[in-house]
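A.,

Following up on our hallway conversation. Structure tokens first:
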């Protein structure tokens, strides 16, 4: 038998979320991607609380959430990190949306689209791949020492997978092209959430 906490760690199919929203069921959808990614495309009615902001104000956010929380990112990695943080703050009813925002759009869900930009995970793959190619080419044509760059990137990616973190992603998210006009703050992102009952939620 699994514990109640383990049972609550649930991946949510896009079709299920679409059904819940259509039926106006009690839930709050939190998108933990960057503001720029959120502007590019997000689930209609979702709230943007980027993962770094959520990590900084986890307890305050948890105090405002109700009986059902759905966490969204691009691939599920950041949403799972958010779920783990919220679980430590007492939220055991958080779901991670399978396939993220693109998966929901692909399932016919209602999304809001803005300016098309590359998502953060895609940018990380591009930078990591480019550095590996640069290291291998430089090692062959410039100096064998440059080849160690490929090893460093490989080690970093392995560590990222093992710890479920991404230092490169955090660095890339700070680049100017990934900055939205208005970055969410505690006041604009967390305090705008309606306070809900942990048991009853916003059933009204």
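Then the amino acids I'd put at each of the 204 positions:
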């Amino acid at each position: 038998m699994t514990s109640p906490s383990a049972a609550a760690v649930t991946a949510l199919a896009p079709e299920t979320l679409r059904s819940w929203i259509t039926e106006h069921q009690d839930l709050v959808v939190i998108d933990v991607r960057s503001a720029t990614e959120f502007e590019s495309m997000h689930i209609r009615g979702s709230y943007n609380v980027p993962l770094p902001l959520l990590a900084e104000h986890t307890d305050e956010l948890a105090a405002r959430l109700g009986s059902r929380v759905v966490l969204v990112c691009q691939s599920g990695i950041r949403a799972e990190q958010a779920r783990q943080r919220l679980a430590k703050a007492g939220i055991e009813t958080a779901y991670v949306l399978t396939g993220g925002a693109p998966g929901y759009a692909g399932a016919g869900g209602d999304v809001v689209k803005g300016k098309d930009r590359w998502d953060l995970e895609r940018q990380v793959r591009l930078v990591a791949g480019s550095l590996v190619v640069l290291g291998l080419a430089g090692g062959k044509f410039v100096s064998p020492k440059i080849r160690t760059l490929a090893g460093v990137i490989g080690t970093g990616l392995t560590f990222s997978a093992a710890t479920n973190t991404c230092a490169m992603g955090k660095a890339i998210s700070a680049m100017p092209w990934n900055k939205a006009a208005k970055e969410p703050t505690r006041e604009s992102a967390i305090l705008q959430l309606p306070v809900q009952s942990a048991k009853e939620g916003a059933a009204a």
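Residues 120-141 form the longest helix (22 residues). Curious whether your intuition agrees with the design.

B.
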